[in-house]
Automatic annotation (TrEMBL):
GO terms for molecular function: peptidyl-prolyl cis-trans isomerase activity; protein folding chaperone; ribosome binding. Residues 154-214 form the PPIase FKBP-type domain. It is found in: Cytoplasm. The gene is tig. This is Trigger factor. Keywords: Cell cycle, Cell division, Chaperone, Cytoplasm, Isomerase, Rotamase. InterPro entries: PPIase_dom_sf (IPR046357), PPIase_FKBP_dom (IPR001179), Trig_fac (IPR005215), Trigger_fac_C (IPR008880), Trigger_fac_C_sf (IPR037041), Trigger_fac_ribosome-bd_bac (IPR008881), Trigger_fac_ribosome-bd_sf (IPR036611), Trigger_fact/SurA_dom_sf (IPR027304). Consists of 3 domains; the N-terminus binds the ribosome, the middle domain has PPIase activity, while the C-terminus has intrinsic chaperone activity on its own. It comes from Candidatus Accumulibacter phosphatis. It is an enzyme of class 5 (isomerase).
Length: 427
């Protein structure tokens, strides 16, 4: 039993319960239709046969919910998650006895941040970073020309493959006309190594072992055999940096100087956001370390389910067949524990220090996001048309307030960061 777990005894009057069941049956029978009887005139014994179980379940559920609410309110308990209510063995002739087991929210005690040191990454955007970004934009617009030669790194290949474990195909281990670029890491390195050197029309079988830390526990560390056939090898052809290229970036007149200026503005905004995300993570790490808090398991489980569902939706948007990929909520436990713990700490800081989001903060964030669209004013109007659309910006503004509050209380050390590291690019 954890320190957050509680247990309450609930007692339900049998007489009151049966009275409520009878009242529900009367309400249900009023709309009951049965051949030979007028509406509302169906005999009580027939209505009980038809709706008795439903009425009892509904009455019991509502009565227990009310008893539980009254009990936790009387003891001033903040319930985290859903209670588990079980019937108790009892000889009480007048009452039904139940036991409710549940978790409560922990008491969050904020500790002093004196002596805490946080690194703040810094980076200035210059010509080198702009040139590198333009090169990345070229690669994003790459096209692949079919070639009749052996596949090499940076080529795009189209293959058919079938994976077998102990001679039998396994879920997610097959594909037809599957495209990927060698060297991008979309496939496991052993798989890519087997494809490199194959020509269009060639086929072969090879053995490989999935990494021990592979996301699918069913395949982690397992040895399998893949049958693959290469259908096409494509060589990368990058676009020239000219007026046509500028037009693909939204510069209608193709002016290269204007294109470069727009790339610089967008890059500075992206760098600023990424730097803020880095410092935010450092702040959150510091808060977790300074304010250890026990997290209710029920909230962790709920957050695991949410993260798994979000991951599924993201994978579906990327065109992956999620149903073929095994996924378990337990994989997200560490991330869920961190998110829930931070949520509890941030909530306490905001409550104690009055760090709620200001309307002008939220508006500024919405307007900044809108700048990346063709008609920013329409994007702003869309977000403000329904208040719930501002929830994400409101949460981000609160986080910014907490970050500023923390940074004002710790020692901040500026540390330069490489452009490639910040942008997550391979060297």
């Amino acid at each position: 039993m954890s320190a957050l777990e509680r247990r309450l005894d609930l007692s339900l009057s049998i007489a009151d319960f049966e009275k409520e069941v009878d009242q529900r049956l009367k309400r249900l029978s009023k709309n009951m239709k049965m051949p030979g009887f007028r509406p509302g005139k169906v005999p009580a014994n027939i209505a009980r046969l038809q709706y008795g179980q439903q009425a009892r379940q509904e009455a019991l559920s509502e009565a227990l919910a009310q008893l539980f609410r009254t009990a936790v309110t009387a003891q001033n308990l903040r319930v985290a998650g859903v209670p588990k209510i079980e019937v108790k063995n009892s000889d009480n002739p007048t009452h039904l006895e139940f036991s409710a087991t549940f978790e409560v929210y922990p008491e969050v005690v904020l500790h002093d941040l004196n002596g805490v040191e946080i690194e703040r990454p810094v980076l200035a955007v210059g010509p080198v970073e702009i040139d590198r970004t333009i090169e990345i934009l070229r690669k994003q617009r790459v096209r692949y020309e079919p070639v009749d030669r052996a596949a090499a790194k940076d080529d795009q290949v189209s293959i058919d493959f079938l994976g077998k474990r102990d001679g039998e195909p396994f879920a997610g281990g097959q594909g037809k006309d599957y495209h990927f670029v060698l060297g991008e890491g979309k496939m496991l390195s052993d798989f890519e190594s087997a494809v490199i050197g194959m020509r269009p029309g060639e086929a072969k079988s090879f053995d490989m072992t999935f990494p021990a830390e592979y996301f699918s526990k069913e395949l982690a560390g397992q040895s399998v055999t893949f049958d693959i056939s290469v259908k096409e090898v494509g060589e990368a052809v990058l676009p020239e940096v000219n007026a046509d290229f500028a037009k693909t970036l939204g510069v209608e007149d193709g002016d290269l100087a204007k294109m470069r200026a727009e790339v610089e503005d967008n890059l500075k905004r992206e760098v600023r956001n990424r730097l803020q995300a880095r410092i935010r993570n450092h702040v959150m790490d510091a808060l977790l370390q300074a304010n250890p808090v026990e997290v209710p398991e029920g909230l962790i489980h709920r957050e695991c389910e949410h993260l798994m569902q979000t991951t599924r939706q993201d994978m579906e948007r990327r065109g992956l067949k999620v149903k073929e990929l095994p996924m378990q909520s337990e994989w997200f436990a560490d991330q869920a524990r961190r998110r829930v713990g931070l949520g509890l700490i941030l909530s306490e800081i905001v409550k104690q220090c009055g760090l709620e989001a200001k309307p002008q903060q939220v508006k500024r964030m919405v307007e900044e996001v809108a700048q990346s669209y063709e008609h920013p004013e329409e994007v702003v109007r869309w977000h403000y048309a329904q208040p719930e659309r501002l929830a994400e910006f409101n949460a981000a503004a609160i986080e910014d307030n907490v970050v500023d509050w923390v940074l004002s209380r710790v020692t901040v050390v500026d540390k330069p960061i490489a452009f490639a590291d910040l942008m997550g690019q391979q060297s």
